[in-house]
Specification:
292 residues, mainly alpha, two-stranded antiparallel ribbon, 11 helices, 4 strands
């Protein structure tokens, strides 16, 4: 029993990172119906910026985390302005191809500039293990889950309590009506990309601290899993992204715990297929017909 609880704890911690990534996917999809395949690469860039601030600038971990989030927020807005905004009224497939192009550009650009080898992420915080009976949790794990929860609460406040959050919900519901109400749609969409990219960067820095290594392709698999998490929870729905991220993290950890590490990705995707067969809109999705 204690092993199951321990794996649940580990799964929630890993799932918190997936949830941070999935929130970006779901917000962008919710507002402009775009699956931003470059989102996982923003996660990778966040890890590299964190590496730079910690290794080269010798900054405090939390300052490095905030600066990485801020820079990636600007990069997210820049990507939206250059790669997506000119294609906003084009067929959806054109925007998807543009997203794939941005993803490959970022991955290959980083490989060219910094090499494709793994880099050791600075251990800015000394690991301390806490024991509660047969259960254990490290201070790094506590930092990951508490940071993820704080960021989710802040996102919830922004979306529900601020003027920009109301604009985001209005554009998501009906873009044309939002324009008639005087909402600046371009600014709202840019803000959405900024928030999503900042959350992805936070995930990258936290996972660098957790696993101790980073590389230019580190965003591929977590990016796909975060997208799966967003779909599983109900893409376009913010609580659904968080729920999906935690479920994927728990499923992956449990699969590894029973000795099926080599099949963890296949099992996660198989369960996704089964869930979607019975509820195509995801766990928290609304029952309406929509192309994903």
């Amino acid at each position: 029993m204690s092993m199951i609880i321990q794996q649940l704890i580990n799964g929630v911690i890993l799932g918190s990172v997936y949830a941070l990534l999935a929130l970006g996917y779901t917000m962008v999809y919710g507002i402009i119906k775009l699956i931003n395949f470059a989102h996982g690469d923003i996660y990778m860039l966040g890890a590299y910026f964190g590496y730079f601030f910690l290794r080269v600038m010798h900054m405090n971990f939390f300052i490095a985390l905030i600066l990485s989030m801020a820079i990636c927020a600007v990069l997210g807005m820049l990507i939206e302005f250059i790669a997506y905004r000119p294609l906003r009224h084009s067929p959806r497939i054109a925007v998807l191809i543009s997203a794939l192009g941005v993803s490959f550009f970022l991955e290959n650009g980083m490989s060219y500039l910094f090499g494709s080898d793994k880099r050791s992420f600075p251990q800015a915080i000394k690991t301390i293990q806490y024991h509660f009976g047969s259960l254990q949790i490290s201070n790094i794990q506590i930092i990951i889950i508490s940071t993820a929860i704080i960021l989710m609460i802040l996102l919830n406040i922004i979306v529900k309590k601020t003027k920009m959050g109301r604009a985001m919900r209005a554009v998501s519901a009906d873009e044309e009506a939002a324009i008639l109400m005087g909402i600046n749609v371009n600014r709202t969409i840019s803000f959405t990309f900024a928030i999503g990219s900042a959350l992805a960067a936070a995930g990258g820095v936290l996972i660098g601290l957790y696993y101790n290594n980073i590389d230019p392709l580190m965003g591929m698999t977590p990016g796909i899993k975060a997208f799966v998490a967003a779909v599983l929870g109900g893409i376009g729905i913010i609580p659904g992204a968080a729920l999906g991220g935690w479920l994927i993290g728990i499923l992956e950890t449990m699969t590894q715990a029973v000795g099926l590490s080599n099949y963890k990705d296949a099992i996660v995707y198989a369960i996704l297929i089964v869930v979607l067969l019975f509820k195509p809109t995801g766990i928290l999705g609304k029952n309406k017909r929509e192309k994903v």
